[in-house]
Amino acid sequence: MKTIIKQDINLAKEFLLQGEIIGIPTETVYGLAGNAFNTASLATIFSVKNRPVFDPLIVHTHSLEGVLPLVTHISEKAKILMEHLSPGPITFLLPKSGLIPELVTAGSDLVAIRIPSHPLTLELLKTLPFPLAAPSANPFGYISPTTAHHVFDQLQGKIPYILDGGRSDIGIESTIIGFEDASTPTIYRLGGIALEKITELIGNVHVLSCSTSNPKTPGQLKSHYAPSKPFILGNISNLLVQNGHKKCAVLSFQTHFPGIDHQLQLATDGFLTTAARNLFAHMRTLDQAPIEVILAEYLPCEGLGLAINDRLSRAAAKSS
Ligand code: TXA
Ligand code: MG
């Protein structure tokens, strides 16, 4: 199969109407999208991504009107967040309606729903007669793609089309929040919306930390977002001494390390939003460099720093 990359929404629509799955841009990361109501399309998503079927998919729609038929209830706090933060990098776990196939939710009564803000994809969703199920467009366990070319590099030949919407502006996946406890909602995955913004709007939330022990808890697989080279987190100067015998690459927040050939800074301007935007692209670049190990450091624990640190520690989990 030949994989085309274009900015043509009509072509994207044609493929999706035929039941094909395609790459789509979102403001967080690129998605691997198919008709959320079509079981054959859903099955293709799982097989192309090599994803276990117990790991459910996020359903993307264009507006609150698009969400309503997909769920049976939206709790007060979910409504407040939706009004203020959607379209945007936040995913809501809500009780599913009968329209949602079992395969989307892996048998759960809750469906994950997101209204993405990327203009091309929002436009596409408005013209389609169905919502789009889409996981991040990377092979299962690898780094999420933030450009059409990242998707092409890993999925060429497996999908017919990638809608090119440029570089993802946020750069890390959406924040996932559930409302099973209506008074204190749970953040299942830290992501593109800073925690502070959520608590400002709805008060306290539980934040689930990652675990390796129960792969059935969605979004909680610890070894995730992983480069193929060993990825070690800590104090970079110390790590450089300890790994002096190896060819090291460095991924730092702002600091330049003299004498290191393969190094990237996440944010020379010091902004955590810049760091998030660069994170996955930089991890990919260093992973492809002729080096043996990537040394990295945690970022400040505030704003998007929490979600970035979560991705860094998951990337490192494979090596520890
Ligand atoms: O930013 C994003 O959320 C991107 C873009 C493409 O929208 N999507 C994304 O999808 O990151 P994915 O599949 O890579 O990650 C979605 C996470 C998974 O860890 C999955 O287990 C969890 O959401 N999830 C999906 N449906 C769920 C459900 N019904 N209950 C609990 N967790 C769910
Ligand atoms: Mg993913």
Can you tell me about this structure?
The structure is a single chain. The longest helix is centred in the C-terminal third of the chain and has 17 residues, at 272-288. With 320 residues, the chain is of the alpha/beta class. The chain has helices spanning 9-17, 39-49, 64-67, 76-85, 102-105, 119-127, 148-155, 195-202, 236-242, 272-288, 305-317, and strands spanning 4-6, 22-24, 31-35, 58-60, 90-95, 110-114, 132-133, 161-163, 175-178, 186-189, 206-207, 231-233, 248-252, 263-265, 293-296. Helix content is 31%, strand content 17%. It has 11 helices and 15 strands. Mean pLDDT is 94; it is low at 211-218. Helix 1 (9-17) packs across helix 6 (119-127). A hairpin with a 7-residue loop joins strand 9 and strand 10. The strands form 3 sheets. A 9-stranded mixed β-sheet has the order 2-3-7-4-6-5-9-10-11, sandwiched between helices. Strands 12-15-13-14 form a 4-stranded parallel β-sheet, sandwiched between helices. The chain is globular. Magnesium ion (MG) binds at residues 135-136, 144.
